[in-house]
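Give me structure tokens for this 253-residue protein.
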Amino acid sequence: MARTRTTLTVLRTERLTPHLIRVWFGGPGFADYQTNEFTDQYVKFLFPREGGEVMRTYTIRKVDAEKGELAADFVTHGDEGIAGPWAAAAQPGETLSLLGPGGAYAPRADADWHLLAGDESAIPAIASALEAMAPTAVGRVFLEVSGPEDKLPLDKPEGVELTWLERGDRAPGELLAATVRNAPWDSGNVQVFMHGEAHAIMHDLRRYIRRERTVSAEWAQSISGYWRRGHTEEGFRVWKQELAEAESVPNPA
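Here you go.
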């Protein structure tokens, strides 16, 4: 991704659900932000910590060039983590720097149908994708959240079926993976976007899409974890690197 550093000012915050906070940014630094065409447009926020800064990756939910502002949605679980508590306490006038944006996915008009799946961390990217689809687009979307209070209204084409999944006490991604595997499969070229808890996405659903359903990389290039249960983002990066190295080793004959 581009490594351009931009410093933005907090304008306001909105609590969308008990576990999702939207922070609107703007200020003089907005003029330096170079948006792109991807619906999974993401940045690396730089949070000041003792001894330096730590990076946390988030999808940009909305960009309003006319108003000179953009929004990012933060999943929060009380005092857990770095970005969530920051978003819960953020006040207008505070500043925060970021690197980016990057991105790799946008809905294709030539897809016969779309398949999108994820947990709370993927809601911003999936919501943006739904808004960018043609009114005639068809497909299925599966979103896993903690419970009914974490559902929120999303704009989508009429032909796209949206299914909310309430995980309750189950491990993150477990219900999502099982539901996607058991869902109907349509004919034609499907464009796939799946992100969320890494073990469920990368060990289960990616294998299902690429190997069992034989969807090519051209149509299923955006299947990856956004986070890993029990890992910080730094630990998650190490885990992803180790997984990539393991997958690059040919299986013995």
